[in-house]
Every structure is written in structure tokens, then in C-alpha cells.
Write a structure and sequence with these properties.
The protein is α/β, with parallel strands linked by helices. Helix 5 runs parallel beside helix 6 and helix 6 crosses helix 8. The chain is globular and about 70 Å long.
Amino acid sequence: MPKIHKLLLTTVAGALAAGSIGSAPALASHGQDNYFEASTTLLSSKTRPKAIAQMRSLGVKAVRIELAWGAVAPGPANATKPSFDMKSPGNYAWGEYDAAIAEAQRLHWKILLTLTSPAPRWATSNKKAPYVTKPDPKDFEEFATAVARHYGTGVQLYSIWNEPNHPAFLQPQWNRNGTPASPRIYRALYQAGYAGLKAGGLAQPKVLLGETAPTGYERVNYKREKSKALLHDVAPLLFLRETLCLNAKYRKSGSCTPLTAAGYAHHAYTTAAGPLYRPRERDDVTIGVLSRLSSALSKAFAAHGTTSNLPIYLTEFGVQSKPNRFLGVSVSQQAEYDAIAEKIAWNNGRVAAFSQYLLKDDPLGGKPGASVNGGTIGFQTGLEFLSGAPKPLYHAWPVPLVVSKSGHGYSLWGLVRPATGATKLTVLVQPKGSHKFRTLSTVTTNSQGYWTLRSSTRGASWRVRWVSPSGSKYEGPPIAAH
């Protein structure tokens, strides 16, 4: 189903023009996995073959798949739990999930599998749609056991729940006394899911904690808003602290044991203001303030909220483009902003993974926002329009390029995503006043495909060109300097 976020609509005029994305004199000492989520496109036998072919051409090497509990469980619409062995994989209808995962395994792609809502009706506390209210941890543990027995080590990385700080995926978000409710509900689900994966045969399961949405509320007023207040999304850092039983100063506020995880997953979406946008709300984490999450995780580890100092997995990200009139930027800006966001993540040594959400745009819905406010709009973060026509991002994503002003010159950063080792590419520049591009430099990437370049040549725009060993030609769109 379409994903929905409460993203701020504030536009910071000229934010990118006034700032600098910075530049490093040498390549960072780390790499990051790049996950791609094609959502329903990959989970349909009708659209999967074409999507797989496109993804291979684009350089995809890892995928994220959201496994909806209620989509595979027996009797998902029943109020009463059917009589069946919930730990047995043979009792679930894995359907298109099996086909998509088998194809990813055939291509030797890494797989991140997120176990998430909606839950079966019988596993929720109120038995009401959308079946996300207080899912039963014991039932979820047995489901996770079945998942581990079915997919096992064929899935490299698991994650528990999608955006548990958002009411579209977990309810209630708040208690009537104004304290967050969803973090403790989620903590129980995470512990149950982790235990279930172990019980299913994974001795040391690699599981991500969090999968949090980027923004939310830091407080609500039940007296003023009544039941609406219980559905406002919880700000991600407040959610993190409450999940780990920490107070506002990141000190233990209870006797909770530390949680074990392979990393913390987060969806650092930003607004139309661009990737450098800095929300005023201190507990929000968009890509422009990713350091807030790095700091929070270090404090949480120091307070014994986690058993290790967790790396960050940015498991869902994308830049909204037109025709989304609320959050969308121009399609040319989408390509530039997406690369800038990836460079921000790459420059953060804490980040273990970045991602792209959607190959093809969702259909347009209504106004954006949390479910409590009637938000239904889909995501226009795809590389293609809903019609299938490519955006500039389709050509930019395999060879992302960032050009930043640096002193009296420019610093360039990029990646050849389809490459499987060090390779050479051509950097082109369009001088100011000219309508043509000319070769600026031939650059050799590192073994992971990353490269940097400093240049004193003034230009109106830049682009990159790469030819694969098999002869496939890649040329990114024109990119402006920021």
C-alpha cells in the first residue's frame, strides 16, 4: 500500500544556493551497500521480469523487500485465530515473495527482508482495520520463526517493522497521558521477532532495529485533540529513546536490558527544500541532520541501551519530484538532490547502507501527511514517472554526480554503480556561455566505483559518461554546481 509520511512543507528558499555540500580531498575510507526497493513492481509476476532487467542495467546489487505479515498468514481477515502451527512455513502463502527472493538470490543480490504490518486481523488487539493496533508479540514471534525456517540464511539481513513511529504501520502512537505508546509496543515486537528468528534456526541473526520515519511529534495534547492525539506520529529520536528506555538526556529510565541489533535503520527523507534542509524540531532526522542520529546512537550505547554502537542503515530514501505539488521538486533537481543526499551518507563513516525507494512513481493521491490528518498521497520518488517514461534520475542513478563549489574551483564526487571493480569514466563540462560539452578529465574509480576530482575549470553544468566492459553506454544528465 502507498507509504505516507508527515513531512514538513516548509521551503527554505535558496538553502542549497546559500550553503555548500563540502568536499573531501580524498575518498572516504568506507563504502556503503546500496539497497533498491521496487515495491509492488518487484512483487508482481506481470511487472517483475522488466523490473529485474532494468535493475540489473542500473547496477542494483541489493534489494529491500517488505514482507507483510497479514499478506501471507492464514485467515488474515478472520477475527478468530485459525487453528494451525504458526511456526511451520508450510502454513503460509509466501506467493510472490518467494518468486522475488528467488530471483534476487539467482542474481546474487543481497536481500534485506523487513517483517512488517499489516498484521492478520486475529493478531491485533482491536480486530479493526488497518490491522496495525498492538499486534500480539507471541504471535509475531511464531511468525518470525516460520520466516527464518523458510528463508534462513538465504536472506542476508532482516529488519523488524516498517516505520513503527508512524500510525499507518503501528497504533496507538501515544497514550492518553501524553507519553509515547508506540516505542514500547515496538520494543516488544522487536524482541519477539529477534527471538523468533533465532528459534527458526538463525543462531546469530543479523537484524536491524528501528526503520523509523524521519519526522514526528515530540508531544501531544489529548484534552485538546482527543483520540486524534493518539495517532500523531512520534519523532524518531524520541521513539529511539523510548524504545531503549532512555530519558531525554539519554540516561536509563527503567530496568530494560540492552537490545542486540546489527544496525539501526532509518528513512531520512527530506522536504522540497533539499537535502541540506535542517528541521528545527530536535528529534527529527532528515538527511541534512543525519549527525543527530549518529550522536543519539553513541549516547544510547554509552547508556547501555544497546549491546553495541550501532551502524546506520538508511534503508529507504528518495527525492520527491513533480507532479507532486506538495513535496516535489523539478525532475532535474531530483537527480541533483538525490546524489547530494547519497554523498552526505557516504561522508558519514557511521552509515553502512543507502537506498533508493521506487523504480516507478506511485499514483497521485490526496494531501500528504499522517494518517490522522487524512494523508493518502503516494510517493513520486521513482526513477520513472507513473507512465513508465524515464526521469533524468533514471540516467543519473547509475552514475550519480555531485559538483560543489570549493574555493576558486570545484570539487566533484561520483560513483559508477554498475561497475564491479576499478574502472575509467569521462567527466564532461559545459563552459559558461557554451551550448556544448567538452571532456574535462578521464578519471579512475576505486574498487568500489567511487571517485573524486578537483577542477579549476568554470562551467555551467557537468555530466559523466561511462562505457561498461560489455559495451553498454551510460551518460548522466547535466548537473549544476551547488
